[in-house]
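Here is the promised in-class demo. Please do not try to memorize the tokens; focus on the logic of going from shape to residues.
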């Protein structure tokens, strides 16, 4: 298939050219956020917002409340929200190595699948007269039979299916 796309003597139309492009390489997997850390940050944030709303209402009158009550009113919620935020940071840092490893495993698995799809795509042939794609006998692997002709529009799905049949479905990667 690569030669078909670069053949200047018999160029393909834009729609066919787009359908016959190689499979796109996978994007790197994103590192997941730590759910427990997000929960701790959220609770700390809610407590802080509620504290700011109380402070915006005003400090209790010195005639009604003594100094220790006012100090507790002003700093009490921070005694809870700051340790929660710090605990969230500790949890996030403690689980980072595992989350990065899971993302790297997912990236490697995605790249392995892409290599299989790309290898099968390179083995595909295009009949320009009939505008169909096919795999000749032994083009995907030595013992792989010839495939029936498929419409050029179906080539991406056919490449995926053929790669799974020829090389097997990759094992899913999950958290360790």
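The designed amino acids, position by position:
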């Amino acid at each position: 298939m690569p030669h078909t796309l670069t053949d200047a003597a018999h160029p393909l139309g834009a729609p066919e050219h787009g359908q016959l492009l190689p499979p796109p390489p996978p994007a790197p997997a994103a590192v997941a956020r730590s759910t427990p850390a997000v929960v701790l940050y959220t609770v700390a944030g809610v407590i802080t917002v509620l504290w700011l709303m109380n402070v915006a209402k005003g400090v209790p009158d010195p005639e009604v409340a003594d100094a220790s009550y006012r100090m507790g009113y002003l700093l009490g919620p921070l005694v809870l929200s700051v340790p929660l935020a710090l605990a969230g940071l500790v949890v996030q840092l403690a689980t980072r190595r595992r989350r990065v490893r899971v993302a790297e495993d997912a990236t490697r698995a995605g790249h392995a699948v892409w290599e299989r799809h790309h290898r099968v795509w390179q083995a595909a042939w295009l009949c320009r007269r009939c505008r169909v794609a096919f795999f000749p006998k032994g083009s995907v692997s030595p013992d792989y039979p010839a495939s029936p002709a498929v419409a050029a529009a179906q080539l991406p799905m056919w490449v995926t299916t053929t790669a799974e049949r020829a090389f097997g479905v990759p094992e899913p990667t999950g958290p360790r």
